[in-house]
């Protein structure tokens, strides 16, 4: 029965939405192929793929004339639900019963395989279409999308460069590069095609996942210049890149730029707070909590725990039912009970302003009533407490800095044994080589005990290190030593450095393997960029060893901030890098 142009337009528009009840009503009033296709399409878009199949079966059982539009809509419904086996079965049945189908239906089947990440099946279908000279840009795009979802970025690039893919295919290839952290390939694709916001977002993600956060920020700047307004996804990808690169300052700058053009969502807020957490910026985490969820509170509580701000961590735990936040708050309070006595005691022994130290101790040891934990913490009081602590520490900084500068002149005048070199207050022994993944270790009390008459912390250490090397890891030692930075004579400096080099070389010779070694030798009371938890030693190694990937690496140390530990510098070093951390007990596992 013929239908009017107006009704045909209504059916087509309804089929492109999720108004499947309206389409079914129209189909009942005017049973025809257009109405059937619209109803099946609407059900598919509403995630009712099983109802789409029932409608298609009803169409066939009533001996309606064959029409490719009905099959195409059914295949599209299968594609929306990633039912690739069902889509291929429908195509096979249509071929066997000589029902009409066209390229639109074949591309829908390809799309179903792509959404299910079945790149092998997609590639086989594409090859069949090419043999029949039927493949078009949509066919290639669907296959590249399948490679994207399966993270087979090399094949996605091959299809992009050898077939007629358009901007959609280029965006899918960029997304595949992002999943595989192939930042260089992503940049090449971006420059070879006309870029849009989606393309820039994928390229920024690729740079971020390979810890190339500076490149990610450059791409964000290019996106702001090229497009009228970069999408919020571009800003979120840039913040995530800063998070993986432990660049919390850059993350805050990106967040402020995003806030000018977009209402901020939880994705970008969570990434920013996580970035600040890795940089131990607990106070900044708290200021970002105007739009919180469980993930946000968990990251903020973890930041407070790392800085031993147990009051703030407990307050966050009371705001949301989050296991992460509660665990972080508990750990923060336990750590604070031990660390606060030790730190305030050290300041008291050396400070020249006892009235500041007295006030500092009173504030640090002030108990927090339980009922206050159910309320929002008064940030002003805690900021004042931190300011007072900084006053006490800054009162000691100037004379220490002057002594450190004098010692640096002595350190720079030393002749080091080959192949040892120095950079600032860092001694290092590192042969330039690829280092895709790093097994990092602290030295004292992790691998090694004692001075001249030293011993291993575990008899299995040489075997474990060699096994890691066989598994493709570059074994690197990152150690804090403070002896050289305290020397005031050239002879004393030479003796300290020779002792450090001898201890590390003896350990390397005993293990019988090549080890990269980085030793921060500045005074422990100076905030030197090479001393853990600062990441200067890792940055120096990255410049020598082809930028190892943090997410594939791990770090083992004994200073984990536990009760009885001297500090938490090893855990903090790993956290700032975003790297997996293990205590020294890992060596006995």
From TrEMBL:
Residue ranges that the Swiss-Prot or TrEMBL entry lists as coiled coil: none
InterPro entries (alphabetical): HAD-like_sf, HAD-SF_hydro_IIIA, HAD_sf, PNK3P, TPR-like_helical_dom_sf
Stored Gene3D superfamilies: HAD superfamily/HAD-like, Tetratricopeptide repeat domain
Superkingdom of this protein's organism: Eukaryota
Pfam families associated with the record: PNK3P
GO biological process, one term: DNA repair
GO molecular function, one term: polynucleotide 3'-phosphatase activity
Alphabetical list of NCBIfam families matching this protein: HAD-SF-IIIA
Protein name: Uncharacterized protein
Organism: Effrenium voratum
């Amino acid at each position: 029965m013929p239908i009017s142009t107006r009704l045909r337009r209504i059916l087509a528009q309804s089929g492109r939405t999720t108004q499947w009840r309206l389409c079914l009503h129209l189909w009942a009033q005017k049973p025809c192929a257009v109405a059937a296709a619209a109803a099946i399409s609407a059900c598919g878009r509403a995630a009712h793929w099983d109802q789409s199949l029932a409608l298609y079966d009803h169409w066939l059982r009533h001996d309606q004339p064959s029409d490719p539009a009905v099959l195409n809509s059914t295949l599209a419904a299968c594609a929306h639900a990633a039912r690739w086996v069902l889509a291929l079965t429908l195509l096979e049945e249509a071929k066997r019963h000589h029902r009409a189908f066209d390229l639109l239906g074949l591309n829908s089947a390809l799309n179903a395989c792509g959404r299910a990440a079945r790149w092998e099946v997609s590639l086989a279908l594409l090859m069949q279409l090419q043999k029949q000279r039927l493949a078009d840009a949509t066919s290639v795009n669907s296959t590249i999308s399948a490679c994207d979802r399966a993270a087979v970025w090399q094949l996605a690039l091959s299809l992009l460069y050898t077939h007629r893919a358009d901007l959609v295919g280029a965006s899918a290839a960029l997304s595949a590069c992002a999943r595989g952290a192939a930042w260089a390939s992503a940049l090449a694709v971006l420059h070879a095609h006309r870029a849009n916001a989606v393309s820039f977002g994928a390229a920024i993600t690729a740079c971020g996942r390979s810890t190339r956060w500076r490149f990610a920020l450059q791409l964000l700047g290019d996106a702001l210049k090229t497009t009228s307004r970069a999408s919020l996804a571009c800003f979120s990808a840039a913040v995530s890149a800063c998070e993986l690169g432990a660049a919390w300052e850059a993350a805050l700058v990106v967040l402020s730029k995003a806030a000018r053009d977009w209402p901020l969502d939880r994705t970008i807020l969570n990434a920013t707070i996580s970035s600040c957490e890795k940089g131990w910026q607990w106070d900044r985490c708290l200021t970002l909590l105007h739009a919180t969820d469980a993930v946000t509170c968990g990251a903020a509580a973890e930041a407070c725990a790392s800085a031993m701000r147990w009051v703030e961590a407990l307050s966050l735990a009371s705001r949301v039912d989050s296991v992460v936040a509660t665990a972080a708050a508990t750990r923060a309070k336990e750590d604070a009970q031990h660390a606060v006595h030790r730190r305030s005691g050290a300041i008291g022994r050396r400070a020249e302003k006892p009235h500041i130290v007295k006030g500092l101790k009173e504030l640090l040891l002030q108990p927090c009533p339980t009922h206050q934990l159910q309320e929002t913490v008064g940030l002003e009081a805690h900021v004042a407490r931190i300011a007072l602590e900084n006053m006490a520490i800054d009162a000691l900084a100037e004379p220490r800095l002057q002594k450190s500068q004098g010692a640096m002149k002595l350190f720079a005048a030393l002749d080091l044994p080959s192949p040892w070199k120095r950079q600032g207050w860092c001694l290092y022994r590192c042969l330039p080589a690829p280092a895709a993944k790093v097994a990092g270790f602290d030295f004292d009390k992790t691998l090694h005990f004692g001075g001249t008459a030293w011993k291993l912390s575990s008899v299995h250490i040489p075997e474990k290190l060699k096994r890691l090397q066989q598994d493709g890891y570059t074994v690197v030692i990152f150690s804090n030593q403070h002896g050289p930075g305290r020397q005031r004579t050239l002879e004393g400096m030479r003796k300290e450095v020779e002792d450090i080099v001898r201890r590390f070389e003896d350990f390397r010779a005993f293990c019988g393997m090549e080890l990269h070694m980085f030793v921060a030798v500045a005074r422990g009371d100076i905030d030197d960029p090479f001393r853990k938890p600062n990441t200067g030693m890792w940055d120096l190694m990255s410049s020598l060893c082809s930028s190892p990937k943090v997410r594939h690496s791990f770090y083992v140390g004994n200073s984990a901030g536990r009760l009885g530990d001297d500090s938490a510098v090893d855990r903090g070093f790993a956290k700032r890098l975003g790297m997996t951390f293990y205590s020294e007990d890992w060596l006995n596992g």
